[in-house]
Amino acid sequence: MFGIEHLLPCPVSAPNPNDYSKSSEAELKEFRTLEELMKEVSEIDCPLRHAAKNTVFSDGNPDSGIMFIGEAPGKDEDEQGKPFVGQSGQLLNEMLRAVGLRRNEVYITNIVFWRPPGNRTPSADEISICLPYVRKQIAIIRPRVIVLLGSVAIQALLETRSSVASIRGRPHLISGIPVIPTYHPAYLLRSPGQKSLAFQDFLRIARNLKSSYGC
Ligand code: URA
Predict the structure, then answer these.
(1) Coil/strand/helix, residue 66
(2) Cα–chain-centroid distance for residue 109?
(3) Cys bridge to 73: 32, 88, 115, 214, which one at CB 3.0-4.6 A?
(4) Best of 87, 88, 190 for a ligand 1 pocket test (most atoms within 8 Å of beta carbon)
(5) What SS3 class is residue 12?
């Protein structure tokens, strides 16, 4: 439906009161490349790092207009060093295909860069260690749309305690970039009845890209 040529990054927008950006201009200039940021991340002193096999930084196309942010690597991701390669990743790939997108046309990362032991939810401390680096990735990638997958990503980046159900479908911005909060694929695997709502969100992702083309 949409080819990669529609997905080029947006220019910086004017400040907006609903904007949850925490990146200062100085921070935006601090890392010029994703490679520099990746190196920095691999050296972060996060307790999660010591128990993990690999740092799971990101996957996909850094020039993409769409950035997906999930929760944390699981077992498969820890083994392969790539986000969303297990069962949740298969469902994510299917949902992308359903709206005419391929995985190699989007950029994918997580709120934390290492697998929490036993796949537990990352703690507030672990999230706060990794979050500045997620914000810096956003600043480097400058996507046209950010998709937050699940409550951990939503609550961390939108600074809310709201549930996915109560927040999805409402407009949000990070650094002037439209945000689409939606269900995490792992939740959809457990609650397939909610897949149609998530599919509506994925259609919005595709529409959002189309309408912001040329912004
Ligand atoms: N779940 C996530 O949130 N991220 C992954 O990379 C895999 C599963």
Answers:
(1) strand
(2) 5
(3) 115
(4) 88
(5) coil
